[in-house]
Amino acid sequence: MDNQVDIRELNERIERESSFVELLNMEMKKVIIGQKHLLDSLLIGLLSNGHILLEGLPGLAKTLAIKTLADTVDADFSRIQFTPDLLPADVIGTLVYSQKKEEFLIQKGPIFANFILADEINRSPAKVQSALLEAMQERQVTIGTETYPLPNPFLVLATQNPIEQEGTYPLPEAQVDRFMLKVVINYPVKEEERLIIRENLAENFPEPQHILKPEDIVKARKTVREVYLDEKIEKYILDIVFSTRNPEEYGLPDFKNLIAYGGSPRASINLAMAAKAYAFIKRRGYVRPEDVRQVCHDVMRHRLGLTYEAEAENITSEEIISKILDTVEVP
């Protein structure tokens, strides 16, 4: 019984401490019409200290959503447009010789900001991608012989355009795993698009207010980690991830020839973390199975390797994840 009292107290505290989520949503909805899933995903990444890869056609407000989020948090924002001629020094910075001082001075690159928008990340060669991905993983950058920590919070939101294959450098599977979520964005419905037209033709485009400071985010992240995750939910997360590695043990023998490799332990960690953040956004102090299901596609879709057989049969990782969620026993 003692445990239940604790959960009740935790629930009330998290309901109080997550009150800013509604304000944040309201400010973002002033600028972004529809795209609820995208806004939720940005908040999950922000609250669980995870980077996000956004995939969608041009013109679906990917850049605008990220810039709006940075505006609602009074934080530094950098946009890096990835192009084939970009060099790692253009991202992280370099040493510049000062004749006046007769020494090398550090010139920090655009990566030294709280929010980084890596636009069309698949347009740059591997060297630049790996410089960014190393910074994402290590939260620090080495220039010359010195290592410099990146600001906190530090959130990378990378976009990639799925329709152009020419002149692009697809991110290697092992590198894509560094992103906590891969979010796929679709077209708005007709009514939303009508509002988008009106908003863009109006005299003044709405601007979000600063609601939070970077230190508020750091504090909220600590609270998100306190969200209660029951052992039954832990088992559910492990079953989902393990069914991508040993599908035959979970009554999915057909998947053995379709999945080349399953989710890594990073998948399990991120699934648990994202579920906690989702519960926090819903202003709850404990994780439900539904929270895990809600974030599962975004956490897992870029972590499954499909065989040639799956590709020949036009089977996508989306379909495999949906089937796993239908098959694995829900606590």
In summary, what is this structure?
The protein has 331 residues and is an alpha/beta fold.
How does the major sheet shape up? 5 strands, parallel
CATH superfamily of the largest domain: P-loop containing nucleotide triphosphate hydrolases
What is the count of structural domains? 2
Number of helices: 14
Average pLDDT reading: 86
* Main CATH class of the largest domain: Alpha Beta
CATH architecture name of the largest domain: 3-Layer(aba) Sandwich
Q: Can you count the beta strands?
A: 11
- Helix share bin: 40-55%
In terms of per-residue confidence, which ranges show pLDDT below 50 for 5 or more consecutive residues?
A: none
User: Based on helices, strands and strand pairing, what is the structural class?
Assistant: alpha/beta
Distance between the termini: 20 Å
What features would you describe in this structure?
- The chain is an alpha/beta fold and 331 residues long.
- The protein folds into 2 domains: 37-199, P-loop containing nucleotide triphosphate hydrolases (Rossmann fold, 3-Layer(aba) Sandwich); 224-326, Magnesium chelatase subunit I, C-Terminal domain (Helicase, Ruva Protein, domain 3, Orthogonal Bundle), CATH 1.10.8.
- It has 14 helices and 11 strands.
- It has helices at residues 2-17, 20-31, 36-47, 62-72, 88-92, 126-138, 173-176, 190-201, 214-226, 231-245, 265-281, 289-300, 308-312, 317-327, and strands spanning 52-55, 77-81, 93-98, 103-108, 115-119, 140-143, 146-149, 155-160, 181-184, 259-261, 305-306.
- A 5-stranded parallel sheet has the order 2-5-8-1-9.
- The longest helix is centred in the C-terminal third of the chain and has 17 residues, at 265-281.
- It is globular.
- The two termini are 20 Å apart.
- 37% of the residues are buried.
- The mean pLDDT is 86.
